[in-house]
Amino acid sequence: MCGIVGYTGNRTAAALLLEGLKKLEYRGYDSAGLALQQEGRLIIAKKAGSVADLESILEPGLDQNTVGIGHTRWATHGKPTDINAHPHCSCGDEIALVHNGIIENHQELKEWLATDQGHRFISETDTEVLAHLIEEFYEGDLLMAMRKAMKRVIGSYTVLALSSREPGRLVCTRQSSPLIIGLGENENLVASDITALLEHTRNTKILEDGEFAAITADTIEIIDADGKAIEREVFEVTWDLEAAEKGGFDHFMLKEIMEQPDAVRETMRQRIDHSSYKIQLEDLGFSAGELQAIEKFYIIACGTAYHAGLVGKNVIESLTGIPVEVDVASEFRYREPLLKKNQMVIVISQSGETADTLAALRLARQSDLKVLAITNVVGSSVSREADHVFYTWAGPEIAVASTKAYLTQLVALYLFALYLGQIRNSTKPAITEQIVEGLIALPGQLKAILAADSINRLKQYCRHLAGWDSAFFIGRNLDYPVAMEGALKLKEISYIHAEAYAAGELKHGPLALIIEGIPVIALATQKAVLDKTLSNIQEVNARGGAVFAITQEGFKDVVRQVDAVFYLPPVIDLLAPVLSAVPTQLIAYYAAVERGHSVDKPRNLAKSVTVE
Ligand code: G6P
Description:
It contains 19 helices and 26 strands. Helix 4 packs across helix 5 (142-150).
């Protein structure tokens, strides 16, 4: 999620690192920093804000230094402040490092390092633990020390470090997080993202999970976790800068759709104890007493986040028995809601900056209600003003149409509902186990859904859809909010007028609009209401509508009644929205591409809506 750059050679490191960090900034980051080697010591400069803010605090005369590391931070642990910005240093400032990812066992390591080994910590980050841990093993060889230290670390990471005692040498490793070494003439570079390297070289060596590398201006030594040397072929990058920013995809939206398995996995990381099926959300900061006393929830959000809230209502009510009202923030504010003691407000906002959502949050707090924020941006206005925050760790989302942030909002709501059920003893252990097993399976299932052959089948229907100016999405029960989100996505980026209807409501009006060939996307994933949904699909069929069904493997009757079908892997009704949202995103995406629209920046819309 963060950006990493490193340089060793004979050019001015600071200028090259800043340039590299700027290349990564297109994703939107919250702080930046550098560490440079200078005559036996390290110079550290870091700052909350943009790379330009970092540049403005750099002392003159740094142009003699030719070795350094740099970082742009997207906060996960600790607010975006100067102190929490990377690099982080060992006690004696001998070692500095930058990190991308999450260290799951950082609390435990920190306790050991601070209490037993006497290390002093100054930031709120999980990253700082790594600097002190490597220092514990450091005897003059940073590669060796990092290899020993990382054996104790659980999590996902890219780490790039340097030591004041090893001039010209950078050391790095990775686990479930990218790292690329760029090969130059009498210089070498390292980056978490190819975009930061392209201006200097197209020749790269890609580090694999669990490998370590030591890099100087003329040498690259790669080893595995046991210290065995590894020969790595040179990989020549052929993408241009724009394609590289998009990870080789045509649009950010498609890249972000494809990132969903990882985003969902990250959001669950550290929050589920697989062995006991316990949800670990103590970090949220609510006491058991507070959660037990809740008599009603309001979920408040805008746009896509509102649709996540509609799914959340169903999930919280069914797992806890607590009633939930869901409101669009701009309506909640002005409808004089009957706010009372023992009610809690959940606001959902990807950006954490949406003006109406923020105003609704303030209204709730003025009425003395506790507010939980579900957001993707650490340090955002919503996160600062809420009582407690559940961060979705989806990483930066650039396309205006929200995809991966939405799926992680759903996951956050499932986890919160399960946690409530656990605290209030309202969910049967067998149900909890079934849902937890289902959640753990989601990343793998999402990967299967995103496989090329299933997408190809869907593209054909999108060509038909793109020729129409109107379409319908129908579904019952939990399929209904997914239909609403699908219709919103299609409207936003393809400019096709799309309406979502509770399938049972078709006959009360919209059926009059069903004509030969009109696209109708039918969500039929809910076993509990499958027969009812099938009857509604028949109503459409009888009038000639072209039905594309999204259903589950094994729901055989569906295929007989529709023009095209997209099968999801088997999933329990409650979790189906996480999977079924994905084909609707792809439908919107390919319809928009077919119509030649600007997918990532649709007309009249903005990513973050800070006006009322
Ligand atoms: C805008 C965006 C949507 C988003 C909505 C709410 O309309 O285009 O993608 O769902 O705002 O944004 P938030 O950041 O609060 O989730």
